[in-house]
Amino acid sequence: ELQRYGDELDGKIRKCEKEIKALENTMKHLQKRNKNYRDKFLRGAEGADLEKKQILEEQCRAASETLFKKRKEVQKLNKEYDDDMRRLMEYQ
Question: Any idea of the CA torsion for 28, 31, 32, 36, to the nearest 10 degrees?
Fold first, then answer.
């Protein structure tokens, strides 16, 4: 009877060891999937940030070009104003 009880306990131990091994494998699988998901999420965030940065750089470049054109236009108008004022003074 003691032998049979020992065999039952041994069977239960082996079953629990198999379950533990299966759980460890499941845990490793989940950890790997979580790591992959986290890496993809971070890369996605960087990609989104990169896209936003490119959009902002393009907007900055366009604003700089507009500013340059407006400054040139202001210089031209100032020169024309000065020339017109000089001619006006000559006629008086």
Answer: 170
Please state, in angstroms and as integers, the Cα–Cα distance from residue 39 to each residue in 34, 44, 45, 47, 66, following that order.
8, 8, 10, 12, 40
Average confidence (pLDDT) over 69-86 = 94
SS3 letters for 3-64?
Answer: HHHHHHHHHHHHHHHHHHHHHHHHHHHHHHHHHHHHHHHHHHHHHHHHHHHHHHHHHHHHHH
Q: Tell me the C-alpha distance between 23 and 30, whole Å.
A: 10
Tokens in use for 1? 């009877």
pLDDT at 49: 74
Q: What is the pLDDT of residue 1?
A: 80
- The residue with tokens 């500013």 is 67
Which pTM value belongs to this model? 0.48
